[in-house]
Specification:
It is a single chain. The protein is an alpha/beta fold and about 375 residues long. Helices cover about 30% and strands about 30% of the residues. An eight-stranded mixed beta sheet has the order 6-7-5-8-10-11-12-9.
C-alpha cells in the first residue's frame, strides 16, 4: 500500500486551492509539521482549536487540515503559558501536523464561495471582486503521429479550461526533419542519416503557473530524446478569480422567505437580515465568513442582496443607505460546509494518486461558539 507524505498532501491541496491565490495578509499552507512525515490518517476541520487537535490525537491522525490558519502573523515566541503557544506545542507533542487553506480556497474555482453559492441556490455565478486574472501561455509540441494521443492525454490535466469546456487542444499534421548525431539514440532514423517523419503540431493553452509541470509531463510522455516544443506568452486573459460570488436565483423570492430558506439550508440557529421583508430578491451576492466589506462591490454589481456573516451595526446602516438587502447568516454556518467538501475532495484525490494507505475523516466535535 502507498502512503502519502505531508508534502504530497500539500501538493494536492495546492491543486484544489493554489496558495498563490491567497490574499497578501493571509497565511495558508503548512502551519506545523514535517513535510517529509508520512500520513496514515487525516482529519478535516473548520478551525484549528484545542478540541480539534485533541480529536485528531484521539483518533490517531497525523494531519489536521483546517480552513482558518493556526498562525496568521510571525510569532515572537511559542510559550505554553499562552493559549496559542500551548496549542502549537500540543499539536507537535501529539504528532499532529496542521495545514490550512484559507482565502486561497475562498477564491479558487470550485472553492468555498462556489460551494456556498450552490448551497443557497445561485446560478451563473462570477467573482464579486476580481483579485486574480490567470496568465496563459500556449504550449506547442511536435509529436510523431502514432504518439499524439499519449502526449495529449498527459498534457490535458494542465490545459486551461475554456468557459464550460475542458481538455481543449488543436493538432495539425506536417513533416519534421532531423539528422541524429553521434551519441544520439533516435526514436526513428539512424545516426548520421538525414531523416523525415510525419509529425503532428499539438498545441493548447496552459496557465502560466502550470507551465513547468506541463513541460515535465510532456517530457515524460514524449518518445523523443529531445522533443521540440515552444512556450509562447499570450495577451489573452485566462479565468478571472476573486473574493465572493454574485449570481441569480431561479426566480425572484421575497427577502423574508429567502432568509427562511437560508436558515434551513445552512442549519443556522438564527440569522439577521436588513431590508424590506417583502422586497423581491433575484440577484444575490455572497461572501462566506466575514464579507461586509464587499457591500459597495455588491451594490455596484447590481445585487439585490448580500449574504455573509459577522455584520456590524454600522455596516447594516451602510446597507440601508445603499438600498441593498443584507443577510447575516453567521461566520460558522457559511463556512462549516467546507469540512465535508474538503474531506471528499482529498479522499478522491488521494485515491486517484494511488495513496491507498490514508484515511480522511471529518471532525465531529466542532460547534458554533455562539449560542442563541
Amino acid at each position: 500500500m502507498k502512503t502519502p507524505k505531508i508534502s504530497d498532501i500539500l501538493g494536492i491541496i495546492n491543486k484544489i486551492a493554489p496558495i498563490a491565490l491567497a490574499e497578501t495578509w493571509d497565511n495558508p499552507g503548512l502551519q506545523v509539521g514535517d513535510p517529509s512525515a508520512e500520513v496514515h490518517r487525516v482529519m478535516v476541520a473548520l478551525d484549528p482549536t484545542a478540541a480539534a487537535v485533541d480529536s485528531a490525537i484521539a483518533t490517531s491522525c497525523q494531519l489536521l487540515v483546517t480552513h482558518h490558519p493556526l498562525i496568521f502573523k510571525p510569532l515572537k515566541s511559542i510559550s505554553a503559558a499562552t493559549p496559542h503557544g500551548a496549542l502549537i506545542q500540543k499539536a507537535i507533542k501529539g504528532g499532529v501536523s496542521i495545514i490550512s487553506l484559507h482565502t486561497n480556497y475562498d477564491i479558487a474555482s470550485g472553492g468555498l464561495n462556489d460551494l456556498l453559492a450552490d448551497k443557497i441556490g445561485l446560478s451563473a455565478t462570477v467573482p464579486l471582486k476580481v483579485t486574480t486574472v490567470c496568465e496563459l501561455v500556449k504550449l506547442v509540441v511536435f509529436v510523431p503521429v502514432e504518439c499524439l494521443e499519449q502526449v495529449r492525454v498527459a498534457l490535458f490535466p494542465f490545459a486551461a479550461q475554456q468557459g464550460n469546456y475542458r481538455d481543449c487542444s488543436f493538432a495539425a499534421g506536417g513533416v519534421g526533419t532531423f539528422t541524429p548525431l553521434e551519441g544520439a539514440s533516435p526514436y526513428t532514423g539512424s545516426v548520421g542519416v538525414p531523416s523525415q517523419t510525419p509529425e503532428e503540431r499539438l498545441e493548447m493553452l496552459v496557465p502560466r503557473a502550470e507551465a513547468a509541470r506541463a513541460v515535465k509531463a510532456l517530457l515524460g510522455a514524449h518518445p523523443y530524446e529531445e522533443p521540440a516544443f515552444d512556450i509562447i506568452p499570450l495577451l489573452n486573459e485566462g479565468e478571472k478569480l476573486g473574493i465572493g460570488r454574485i449570481g441569480r436565483l431561479a426566480e425572484p423570492v421575497p427577502l423574508a422567505e429567502y432568509a427562511g430558506r437560508l436558515r434551513k439550508v445552512l442549519s443556522a440557529p438564527m440569522l439577521r437580515y436588513v431590508g424590506d421583508p417583502e422586497a423581491k430578491i433575484s440577484k444575490v451576492a455572497l461572501c462566506s465568513g466575514s464579507g461586509a466589506s464587499l457591500l459597495r462591490e455588491a451594490a455596484r454589481s447590481g445585487a439585490d442582496l448580500l449574504v455573509t456573516g459577522d455584520v456590524k451595526y454600522h455596516e447594516a446602516r451602510d446597507a440601508e443607505d445603499l438600498g441593498l438587502a443584507l443577510i447575516d447568516a453567521g461566520h460558522f454556518p457559511t463556512e462549516i460546509i467546507m469540512v465535508q467538501n474538503i474531506t471528499e475532495r482529498l479522499g478522491l484525490a488521494l485515491e486517484k494518486a494511488g495513496y491507498t494507505d490514508c484515511q480522511i475523516t471529518a471532525c465531529q466535535t466542532e460547534k458554533d461558539p455562539f449560542r442563541i
